[in-house]
Amino acid sequence: MSSADERADTAALSAELAEARAEQAATAEILAAIGRSDMDLGAVLVQLIRSAINLCGGERGVIWIRRGDLLHLEAHVGYPEEWVDLASANPILPDSGSSTATGRTAALGEVLNIADLPNDPRFSGYGAHRVGDYRGSLSAPLLRDGTVVGVLGLTRPMPGLFSDRQVGLLRRFASQAVVAVENARLFGEVQARTRDLKAALDQQTATADVLKVVSQSILDLDGVLTTIIDTAVRLCGGARGTIYLVAGDELVASAFHSKVPEDLRAHLRATRYRLDDNRPIPDAVRACEAMQIVDVQKDPRWQDRTVLTKARFGSMLYVPLVQDGRGIGCMAIPREEAIGFTDRDIGLVRSFADQAVIAVRNASLFQQVQTRTVELERSIDDLRLAQDRLVQTEKLASLGQLTAGIAHEIKNPLNFVNNFAALSADLVDELIDVLRPAGLRPAVRTEIDEIAGLLKGNLEKVASHGRRADSIVRTMLQHSRGGSGELRRIAVNALVDESLGLAYHGARAEHQGFSVALRRHFGPEAGEADVRPQELARVLLNLFSNGFYAVRQRAEGGEPGYEPCLTVTTTGTADAVEIRIHDNGTGMPEAVVQKLFTPFFTTKPPGEGTGLGLSLSHDIVVTQHGGRIDVTSEPGRFTEFRIVLPRDGSAAA
């Protein structure tokens, strides 16, 4: 063999080796692209077409993918825009008699190597080669398990057949295209399955969260319904939403999605739907079936055009809230675009509608329990009040019997003591006058004067304590007889102010130098009330006197910076009048407060109180006027009496 032949053989081997390396490199790049987790099918197919063009001698390339019965343009390289538009608008039917090489290749499942398309009578009628400016054509089927799933085609402007080597290479590229398409399909299925699983997980998580809110927020129905509608809208792809509840024979907007603007909320609240209206929401509630309007702009049932000026609505979904086979409300969820809701969307919203029913029922049951509890508590309070009144009545009855006995047994002896004490004092004066002319020694006369003075002083003390005993008896008799005087309509503030003035001047007259700050807060709403003025004035005088006594006791303790103060406040409602008497005196422990209204109980030193003032006050307020008197106190800080009187005297017991 000559050296020229050797060089020619060497050059041929080098060319074959370069081509093999190029083929291996292209295959490796394509397989690497196919194997990536973020594979972009369109980009991989374009890369595959470019490699096929470079290695197989073509100038343009295309891949068609079968969807249903037709082949659709999937990827292309090198074709003019007019050809791409024509191919995209005209999917190809696989047919062995097709006027296109792609259609015949897909139908036969074989490679077609065509030298000159314009001059081949089988394909001259199609005309796409004139738009795409090509003549030579090579197309290979994409086979998966013997089924054609697409076609890979190469074209070039010059006529002529592709070589056997180029045909073989195109077959391998077609196989790689099948792998890419299959990987993309599997990846899509995995992605879809992942999305379905994620959606199911999101739904389960959301359902659990909503059920947790439903179980923990019985008192906050609005908050629970807002959580439910927010979650339902998010999972079904809605724009916003509203929950309507049945109120009488109407449907009322009761809860809104968080993104519903305030002006739209106000409009929806003001728009009521009667249950018998021929409108979408009442229809869904009456039928207890979900319904939707795919395009509200075109549906005559959508009558509320005002809503469209406040928000963008395309489609609407109505899912009723059904309890015991009866509609109690409805969930209305729009989409901004006219895109219908799927069966999955409707089923998902229906599940949240069921949770809304549970929330409404729980709130209703809780309200019933609360109402019943309040009624029971009121009944217990009434029973306790009646019991207290009965006990007080029994005490007063016993006291009446006691005081009647005292009046009979003590009154006459007490009058005898008082009268003879006064008479004896007069006799002492007369005795001194009689002895004055007698000639007695000065020492004897001095001794007689001293004895007479002591005797007269003792008699005055006897008379003083006798008068006090008589006062106690009279007070007990008043307690036993009950109230006196008739009910009269009087101005409450005037009576309180007059009684306060009398009590204050009496305290200053009894204790020289006594001073206390008086604060009057007389509310005009106190107005007038039907009371027994004399009896109520007696109560007020007693309470004011007790307040003055308390602040005086604290002031005498020498507490630095202490300023005695008594505050009187009056208020009123349509049915009652309230009087509060607050002093910043010594205060009382709870054990003393519990016994304040017990007859003969007093905290004052012997000789300063009878223990009947507050008992008598309680009798006047509760028994005679049908009101109540309460006391609150804190040792060393304050005491406050609260009197509540019915404005209408007919309410008196």
Describe this structure in words.
With 653 residues, the protein is α+β, with helices and mostly antiparallel strands. The chain has three domains: 11-189, 2-Layer Sandwich (Beta-Lactamase); 206-367, GAF domain (Beta-Lactamase); 486-651, 2-Layer Sandwich (Heat Shock Protein 90). It contains 16 helices and 18 strands. The strands form four sheets. It has a six-stranded antiparallel beta sheet with strand order 8-7-6-11-10-9, sandwiched between helices. It has a five-stranded antiparallel beta sheet with strand order 2-1-5-4-3, with helices on both faces. A five-stranded mixed beta sheet has the order 13-15-16-18-17, covered by helices on one side. Helix 1 (3-35) packs antiparallel against helix 2 and helix 14 (533-556) packs antiparallel against helix 16 (613-624). The mean pLDDT is 80.
Entry summary:
54% of the residues lie in helices and 19% in strands.
Please write out the topology:
Blueprint: H1 3-35, H2 41-56, E1 60-67, E2 70-77, H3 81-89, H4 101-108, E3 112-114, H5 128-132, E4 136-144, E5 147-156, H6 164-216, H7 221-236, E6 242-247, E7 250-256, H8 262-270, E8 273-274, H9 280-287, E9 291-293, H10 305-310, E10 315-323, E11 326-335, H11 343-435, H12 442-481, E12 488-491, H13 492-510, E13 517-522, E14 528-531, H14 533-556, E15 565-572, E16 576-583, H15 590-593, H16 613-624, E17 628-634, E18 638-646
Parallel strand pairs: 13-15
Antiparallel strand pairs: 1-2, 1-5, 3-4, 4-5, 6-7, 6-11, 7-8, 9-10, 10-11, 12-14, 15-16, 16-18, 17-18
Helix pairs in contact: 1-2, 1-6, 2-6, 6-7, 6-11, 7-11, 11-12, 13-14, 14-16
